[in-house]
Amino acid sequence: MKKYFIHFFVFGIVAAILYENHIEISWWQIYFFLLISICLWTYLILFKKKILILVLVFLLVFCLTLWRIESLRYQPKLPNFQDQKIELSGFVFGEPDIRSFNTRLKIQVDKIFFKDQHGQQKTILNTNEKLLITISHFPQYKTSDQLKIFGKIQLPKNFENENGIEFDYVNYLAKDDVYSIIYYPKVELINRENFNFNRLIFSIKNSFLEQVQKVIPSPQAELLGGILLGTKRSLGEELEEKFRIVGLIHIVVLSGYNVTIIAEAIFRALGGLPRYISATLGILSVIIFSIMVGSGATVVRSTIMTILALIGRLSNQNYNVNRALFLAGSIMLFHNPEILLHDPSFQLSFLATIGLINISGFVKKIIKIIPEKFELREITSATLSTQIAVLPLLTKMTGEISLVAPIVNVITLQVIPITMLLGFIAGVSVYINETFGLIVSYIPYLFLSYILMIVDIFAKVEFATIKLTF
Known about the structure:
Layout lengths: L4 H18 L4 H21 L3 H22 L12 E14 L4 E13 L5 E15 L10 E7 L6 E2 L5 E2 L1 H6 L3 E6 L2 E6 L5 H19 L4 H10 L7 H9 L10 H14 L5 H18 L4 H18 L6 H15 L3 H4 L1 H15 L1 H7 L9 H23 L1 E3 L2 H9 L2 H17 L1 H7 L1 H18 L5 E3 L3
Parallel strand pairs: 3-7
Antiparallel strand pairs: 1-2, 1-4, 2-3, 4-8, 5-6, 9-10
Helix pairs in contact: 1-3, 1-11, 2-3, 5-6, 5-17, 6-19, 7-19, 8-9, 8-10, 9-10, 10-11, 11-13, 13-15, 14-15, 15-16, 17-18, 17-19
């Protein structure tokens, strides 16, 4: 019965989120389900029916999640000023998102200044909501900078891709409490802290990328930044589209695969230390890395699973990957219930991991014709199993299927770990001596060029993708 405990725990969370999505929650409903749970608990004590434990877990988690959803609900203020020019102040939240032609900043708004219908100046304090602004590349602003912003409030809108599939951009932003947008406002820096931990982490990341660009040309340098640190800066829309066509975009946006490689490298580097010290340093290193690369849903899921594995190793407990996955998912969903329905990254990452854990074994038995040399069978089974798991959802999201994805993944993924290792060494070498770094960077440059060549060749194939209509 214990092995089903985590499943009923997760099902309770998911059921509450789906329930809330279709039926408006009220406190009496939470009280009602809680009352049923108390009755079941009393019945369990009196008659000791073990099966009721799972039902009780489901109902208690269901009630707790409904309470969590209700406690997170609030009415945003900024949409009330739609199409109006207002002044506000706030702090840069998270890492600036540098695109090809502009930069996007998430602002944690703390004050809204506006004039009422009588022309009198009013101020709204502590709004606790976020705003997305699009600005030019310069001047550059950093994490936790306090800014004064003046511009026209607009509401986000859904849009369609080239295949006519609508992306729910409104709810995608709303899951992070972003309900309003300002394009190219007037921005003034009010205050910049002397020290901020997140800013320090991002500064180290950007400094490393600058060193890489000194010794590795474009677009290889941008590709290495994507593989190592999840940055797509200046990769270019055309090249990014090619990666999507061949089904290899996951290596550029830092998938769980990349995080696993980083975590494994950290474990090996700390392997000679005492167990408790290596586990503690490993957990801290993985958390810092997740902050550095932006803490997207995929990274957070991989980080939680890695920490659970370290804790299991530390306490001599068996590590069950399926349970770790469901526990990681439940933690993420309880923290932010909206990601279940409105975060494609979370959905695809979860499905891909389920496929990798539960389907790859069967696939490996079917593809015995593929040799085990160079881990070709392992990579092929992993690629096919994840593709099978995400195919229905990915097709629904994009309206197309990449036919060349399995082949491209098999012939490129085997060089990713060595490319990441040598690319990291090359970037660090530049700090020591630029000429030395240039020499060291030659081999990772060749691997990066190989990946780009494969992507370019297969992206030009006529039948690389097929479009589907629903």
